[in-house]
Amino acid sequence: MNMSGEQRIEASITRVWEALNDPEILKASIPGCEVLEKKSDTELAATVTLKIGPVKARFNGEVELTNLNPPHSYTIVGEGKGGIAGFAKGGADVELKEDGDATILVYTAKADVGGKIAQLGSRLIDSTSKKLAGQFFQKFGTLVEQG
Questions:
Q1: What is the pLDDT of residue 129?
Q2: CA 126, CA 90: separation in Å to the nearest integer?
Q3: Cα separation, 2 vs 20, whole angstroms
Q4: Contact yes or no for 63/47 (Cβ under 8 A)
Q5: What is the pLDDT of residues 47-61, one digit of tens each?
Q6: What is the pTM of this model?
Q7: Fewest beta carbons less than 10 Å away: which of 2, 110, 139, 144?
Q8: Alpha carbons 89 and 9: distance in angstroms, whole number
């Protein structure tokens, strides 16, 4: 599945970049995130609980930041395992563009799921993924603007 979108954030490009690399802001923005720890400047470990249709699963995963071009762009790649529920893996290209005193965050994401979750059907998975992405960017934007 592929998703893309953009979010206008009323903050400087430097502030948005710092927030994209701040585990506390990311943890607070990711729906269902229970744990997010920084393992290195480019690696994070996460535990996220999600409900997709009738399936609720806890995913343990790792995320890596690549193609770093501060403060303009990076690629985030990750994989999570949800036990019997299955797995999810994917990534997103994130680009920041200055817009006066604000920043436009543009993302293109790609994800794959397998196991029990994959049996739920692509329409349910796609709509849930888009909803979760929307919740993340809305919360992220609010936290950065308040910060």
A1: 87
A2: 13
A3: 21
A4: no
A5: 999 988 888 899 999
A6: 0.90
A7: 2
A8: 27
- 71 upstream amide cis, omega within 30 of 0: yes
CB 103 within 8 A of CB 13: yes
The predicted pLDDT at position 62 comes to 96
pLDDT (tens digit per residue) in 105-142 = 999 998 888 998 888 888 888 898 888 888 999 999 99
Q: Is 24 left (phi over 0), alpha (psi -120 to 50) or beta?
A: alpha
Please report, as a single letter, which amino acid is at residue 13.
Answer: I
CATH of domain 2-146: 3.30.530.20
Which pLDDT belongs to residue 147?
84
Looking at the DSSP assignment, which residues form a beta bridge with residue 61?
46, 80
**DSSP labels, the chain:** -EEEEEEEESS-HHHHHHHHT-HHHHHHHSTTEEEEEESSSSEEEEEEEEEETTEEEEEEEEEEEEEEETTTEEEEEEEEE-GGG-EEEEEEEEEEEEETTEEEEEEEEEEEEEGGGGGG-HHHHHHHHHHHHHHHHHHHHHHHHH-
Q: Enumerate the domain spans of the chain.
A: 2-146
